[in-house]
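pipeline/complex-builder :: batch 7 item 3
reading input block
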Amino acid sequence: MDSNNISPKYGVIGAGSFGIAVANLLAQNGDVLLYVRSEDQKSEINTKHTLKSYSMDERVVATNDLKEIADECYLLFPILPSDNFVEMLEELAPYLRPSHVLIHGTKGLYTPKKITSDVSLKKEEVYTMSELITIKTGVLRVGCLAGPNLASELAENQPAATVIASSFNEVIEMGQQALKSSRFQVYGSNELLGVELAGVLKNYIAIASGMLTGLGYGENARALLITRGMAELIFIAKALGASEKAFLGLAGIGDLIATCNSPKSRNYRVGLMLAEGKKLDEIIESIGEVAEGIKTLQIVRALQKYGYRAPLAEILYKIVYENLPIKKGIDFLMRFTADKDAEYIMS
Amino acid sequence: MDEHQKVKNRLDPVIPEIAEWPIYKLSQDKESFLSETISKTVDSLLESYDSADKLHSELKSVLYQEKNRLTKEPWKSDTPEERIFWSEIKRQILLSDKIEDDKKKYKTDKKILQSILDFYANEIVANFDIKKYSIARRALPFLFSRLMNASPGNKFRFLFNSKKTIYDKFNISGPIDHIRNLAKKGTVIVVPTHFSNIDSPTIGLVIDIIGLPAMTYGAGINLFTIGILSRWLNDLGAYKLDRRRKNKPYLELLKNYSTVAITRGAHSLFFPGGTRSRSGQIEKKLKLGLLGTALEAQRQNLLSFQEDTAKKIYIVPVVLNYHFVIEAASLIDQHLSYEGKEQFIAERNDFSTSYKLLKLIFKVITANPGMTISFGNPMDVVGNEVNFEGNSINNIGQAVSIKDYFTRNGVMTEDKQRDQVYTSILGDKIVKQFLTANTVLSSHLVSFVAFEMIQKEFKNLDLYQLLRVPVDEIEIDFEEFKVEFNIIKEKIIDLFAEGKLRLHDRIKGDNEDTINHGLKNLGVYHPSMPLVKNTNGNIITQDMKVLYFYHNRLLGYGLEQHFS
């Protein structure tokens, strides 16, 4: 692997729908080693080139061995739910060296504190996934992947674009080389924290958007939600130390538009089903994969106690966890004092 | 390895023969050293001027800035030769203006650039004279220890009195054996905090006491015009920096000077805060330019040698603390006028003559009951800890190879932007080490508690209003002071137990003893005392701003929130 002549090998950790989509994109530019947990999944990919309902590029080879993936690839893409992220990092860390580069595609936050209804969180107690990587492993060159990337559309090879953010230009370049293709544009940004937060925070807005659809509301209401939701996200992100810049790009407004309008988004479907009167437990079970928005909502609400103004998150939390009727919640938000429009870019 | 190893006497030199010291070798190889530095600088500059026009206009701008400097900001250090030199450069640039052929013009301009860099390099370059160094290393401790035994009222007896040695007053702590070992294995870069002009001689002397070879050090060119000092510094390996010069070729040359010196194994010293901390607070933000040269040098070492023979570079943070900083009043004034919306008039306090500087040294040393020099844990150039053997240990305890940080797909590559990010990571790690190595002095602790109490008393005032409250309206009840002091001292001791800071011996004892020791020693030589007891036994201040200055030394630990 010390030679530049052979084709590059990329590692993907996590075989959820987005992980699979990324593995297939990477396969257009090199060989791909995909880490899966179970032996069954491994043999399905390696013999039939499929996993569940997805078809896999033949250049994607599955493995159960984290050491193998670390030994074979310098560039790794961990793409798995934030709940499993720490555990994976701890298993992977012994095999990583400072020469590794990690670009994650996980749109979630982590806190070591147990989340209960009365917990409050300080800024220092909440970590993004790239922060987790630098704490739990010895890797310094980290980046993230964010943007309007609905996995099912990527799987159909529809045109799309993404953002890779990192403090290191080199990480962005490596990610661009690995991912770009004629159907897939890759933009770069040095605003790592901003891009990560944009990708993460938008998820609860997507839940709210699903609710609006469930209630039969139209596009005026959704446009209102998206723009005012964005103002709230920017407010939180600034309080957490990020700039608003990323929110005006693909990872911010781009992702917000995609997830707030698409039944393909898990978070959107959670909102939709809540509006249809389903209980949270049932919904989680029926969706199969985790909707990060639910956890993000809990974290944002817990952060709020330190003066982060997030009325939308507060109301959503009450709807999801405290049985506040959705209509009442929406009414409350509509009565919320109207401030100046787009105040976050006017200072 | 004892974290808090104390130095009680002079240690054997790590390299006994001065003729073997890297700094001496550098001085011996001056010519090849300078030509390497200059050619590196030419290369990197030409790379950034991608057209003949850009180079030409850069030369013009350098000339303009230099002419401006010589007429508008003249210093004593400016020599008549310099004027002649720049007139000649002007003549050459005017000639080049007339050349129409681009290639020819570029060639001529390259020559002009080369001669400017030659001129700069010869001005900057340090010398190292073994004889003079030997005299200085004998004279300085003698002078220091004699001065420290002088009692304020009796300025002449000090010469004949030698009860205390220098080691009684220099409180040196830290992993000294570890650092000494690293100086044998690789190249050491010492990065101290900076809040007084006395820092340079202090750290220079301490480096000699702990047996490290002399270090390359950049000193402001204005110091070189101060009589005795200029000859001293020049022959002790200090290179000259002119802070008025901001032009790109000059700054690039300085960086390369440092980089090449480090790649040639010269142990170096920089104050990473750039200048003295105006607020008294321990540096929070570092100047990354010079620090980056350590990283650059490490990468070059790895490129030119096999990994096992490439010299490794070690960063050693140091925190200096004194009970008394003579410049306190002018530093804090500068800080406030810079930060504040309110106008504080900053008085000039330049130690522009030998006499003034010697007077400063005299005052500081005689007045200081102790100077604390706390070495922090050594790190590699990306901020990893290094073990006794000099191997890098990362944040999760793995032994790692420094080379791996500079590879892309397994191959070493040069990437300036990557270097910048690493340097800023290193900067953050140094700042953290400053906080953990900081030794809390009794005087800093009393000023911290007193100022915070006053601030809470006048909680409706902002800082600038607070600093203007007439001092006779401020009085802290001693009993109340003791209560708050005890709370904060307990917190400090907790932090000490967690390894988050260090304590001076006088803080470990009885509280009242610590308070009295602090009050007695805090800024003893200021014309207005930052803290004194009045006739009622209560605490008052005569100078809020200076009190604020000493108080700031304990910012960064979140102690503010623990007051009752």
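note: Chain A has two domains: 9-190, 194-345.
queue -> next item
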